[in-house]
Design goal:
This protein is mostly helical and about 80 residues long. It has helices at about 5-20, 35-50, 55-60, 65-75. The termini are far apart.
Length: about 80
């Protein structure tokens, strides 16, 4: 599978997720980086696409990929506080 195709699928997931939350892409930088909605979108992107964590961090307005990795790890372990 080509990298461009993978990014296109990631973009499709985003086009589905943002309206479901009544967000615009510009809302991403205004929302908390630790917000549960951002984590849920990142989880879906990682499960359904092959986009990188670095790409997710850049798209979501989160400073570092390591922070995204940390949040995904805590989600998988079930230790993430369910804040909105």
């Amino acid at each position: 599978m080509e990298f461009c195709h993978l990014l296109a699928h990631g973009s499709q997931v985003i086009r589905e997720e943002l309206p479901a939350r009544r967000w615009k892409e510009s809302d991403l930088t205004q929302r908390a980086k630790s917000g549960m909605d951002k984590v849920k979108m990142a989880v879906r992107l990682r499960e359904e696409t092959l986009v990188t964590v670095k790409w997710i961090a850049s798209w979501a307005g989160i400073e570092t990929a390591s922070y995204v990795n940390h949040r995904l790890y805590r989600w998988r372990k079930g230790t993430l506080a369910h804040r909105t």
